[in-house]
Amino acid sequence: MADKALLQEFEAVVGADNVMSAESDTHAYSYDAAVLDSVAPAVVVRPTETEQLGQITALCNKHGLPLTVRGAGTNLSGGTIPSKGGVVVLTGALNKVIELNTDDLYAIVQPGVVTAKFAADVAAKGLFYPPDPGSQAVSTLGGNVAENAGGLRGLKYGVTKDYLMGISFFDVDGNLVKSGSRTVKCVTGYNLPGLMTASEGTLGVFNELTLKLIPPPQAAQSMMAVFDDVQAASKTVSAIIAAKILPATLEFMDNFTIRTVDNFRKAGLPTDAAALLLIEVDGHPAQVAEEAEKVEKICSEHGARSVDVARDADHRAKVWQARRDALPALANLKPTCVLEDATVPRSKIPAMMQALDRISKEFKLTIGTFGHAGDGNLHPTILTDKRNHDEWVRVEKAIDAIFDEALAMGGTLSGEHGIGMAKAKYMEQETSRATIEFSRRMKKSLDPKGILNPGKIISALLD
Ligand SMILES: Cc1cc2nc3c(=O)[nH]c(=O)nc-3n(C[C@H](O)[C@H](O)[C@H](O)COP(=O)(O)OP(=O)(O)OC[C@H]3O[C@@H](n4cnc5c(N)ncnc54)[C@H](O)[C@@H]3O)c2cc1C
Questions:
Q1: Taking the model in full, what pTM does it have?
Q2: Which of 102, 230, 252, 324 has the fewest beta carbons under 10 Å from its own?
Q3: Apex CA 345: angle with CA 341 and CA 351, to 5°?
Q4: Within a 10 A sphere around the Cβ of 134, how many other Cβ atoms?
Q5: Do 235 and 275 contact (CB within 8 A), yes or no?
Q6: Which residues line ligand 1 (CB under 6 A)?
Q7: 380-410 pLDDT, tens per residue?
Q8: Rounded to the nearest whole angstrom, what is the distance from the C-alpha of residue 190 to the centroid of ligand 1?
């Protein structure tokens, strides 16, 4: 329980209606989308103006209270679990698009703007904001920057970091720090937007984000290539890129996922297929027609038994709905769904698929795999029940084995879901002792009392 005098200090900043400390309120903010134990904060604070973020941060620092910022809480690595209690700060009410500039192609937004809503506002002005995490209907732009969220369009258009031109954020003392610009180029000092990207609320509290916008592609063509052999599908991914075609989207689904998705929404998918590649090329209409033809040919030459080209907008929407259904459909099967995102150089996708098959057999686990094959970013999804102790021990061993394989192939622990609490213990395995020490010194000097989202990334290793 938070003490009354302390609550009054927060109330003086955001008003009594926006400070919550009842158990029913704090419980609601004790977990996120990661499969980790929940921890309730003492207080939940809901600022309605961005300046209040700085005042709240300063108060937390003054009282030595841990501060965890929360957007939509959809992160998959425990980034918004207030692991040391303290204060959870909600950004949902900080949802204004401050400027949408169609001449200089940028937007300035508050951190709580919902990703899909923003992309729709941008599209209504004839422009394009590509980052599209599967959670975009609810995720926030602040959460996207803090996790460097990717999505289905990463292969051609990049991820959130590629669109962050500038940022203002509050440091732990509540001072407003600004870096980056509205200009295409800016080399004024350290690249603080880069430092803040994927910082998971551990280095500063975002106040405003300046995001790059681009012209939309004039045309797009989607297709679904159906394979009877997983290895053939995996090798086709590299073959498409080797042919110097960069699809906007190049996604993979294995047989287990295909069947589960089809059962979920009766999508009419080929449930006997070993794997599907869902591909979209976009750009100038002439280029799209040429690339679509080439992709179709490459798929056929590499063993696709059929390639269904989307006939119209409806058909195209169905293809992508099937892909977006993958996680909810799998998650529907068992009480616990562990979604991993170890990522490998894409030429290693065939080897990674073999490794996942071996791991699922060795640890006797059900693993459905789908994901951004064009980025080497697969999502092996382990379906389990955390209450089954024996099975959970095998799940933990399987996760270790997935990371071992990915790192041995020159890959990375996380393509887009972040480190949070879930993967901190593996960081040295991918990086080095010196990297951990460097990061530790940086975190200590910027946040000496460990106020900002303690227990995440490097601070998980500080205790
Ligand atoms: C169904 C589903 C599909 C998903 N698909 C994808 C996908 O395709 N690609 C992908 O990359 N991820 C995906 N994710 C993961 C998740 O949605 C992303 O990580 C997203 O960026 C989180 O946004 P959020 O608003 O929910 O942030 P939250 O989960 O609320 O927060 C994430 C982190 O950001 C920090 N943070 C939030 N706001 C601020 C701020 N103002 N200042 C400082 N730090 C802040 C938090 O402290 C936390 O550490 C998916 C998740 C789900 C549940």
A1: 0.96
A2: 102
A3: 85
A4: 20
A5: no
A6: 32-33, 68-76, 79-80, 91, 111, 133-135, 139-140, 142-144, 146-147, 149-151, 200-201, 205-206, 327, 416-417, 453
A7: 999 999 999 999 999 999 999 999 999 999 9
A8: 25
